[in-house]
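Exercise 7.
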Amino acid sequence: MPETKASLDAFRQGLRDHGYVEGRNILIEYRAADGNIERLPGLAAELARLKVDLIVAGATPAGRAARAATATIPIIVMAMGDPVGDGLVASLARPGGNLTGTTFLGPTLVPKHLALLTEALPRATRIAILWHPGAFADSTMRDMLKEAEAAARTLPSSRARCFLPNAQRVAGVSRRVPRYGVFNNREAVELGALMSYGTSLPELLRRTGTYIDKTLKGARPADLPVEQPTKFELVINLTAAKALGVTIPQSLLLRADQIIN
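Solution. The predicted structure, written as tokens, is:
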């Protein structure tokens, strides 16, 4: 899938930034669940049995599986949602244990997504929330829903947001039926969704190289703070808006970091 290739490219670039070239001075054992979260525990256990020097997990579900598989092998998780709420780390500043990594702060962006969607679609009165079961811990999902409900009460009418890891599938749905979504990552907008607001996912994956380098040189994940994004970008797809019959307000367009025509 296109987003998978882009993620791997960013990850490998992060390694090259620190002098690691696959097949030359670093060996990588790849395992992929192909979107089936139920396969992750078995794959993580397999990697643990190989006694690798460290495990790099893509996002929260893989991180949770890796943490359950080993308490000794260092684990670097790329783009976690809510590291503390999901029980992956003790705190962002002092992770503790054998796991650290980066976070895209997705769950905390719920109110912002609702506000953007309200501004773009002022007449919308019914908006669905979509998520992948198991993407976060149950407590995190409950907190996200509470935040959505609280944010909705401050808006003119009921509001929520779309959320699902498989951006291509959801973007395709939004093109075929009258649904409009605000996503965490720009990749969904590039695939045809209406809007996104969040940090750069490729940049987070590239930054993983820093953690790998430090860990291989002896640093403990327990002492490496979880990196939080400092820059967020708003991306709007005007082609998708036109196809959906939506006119994006000029006030929103002026604030966009990128407009896809």
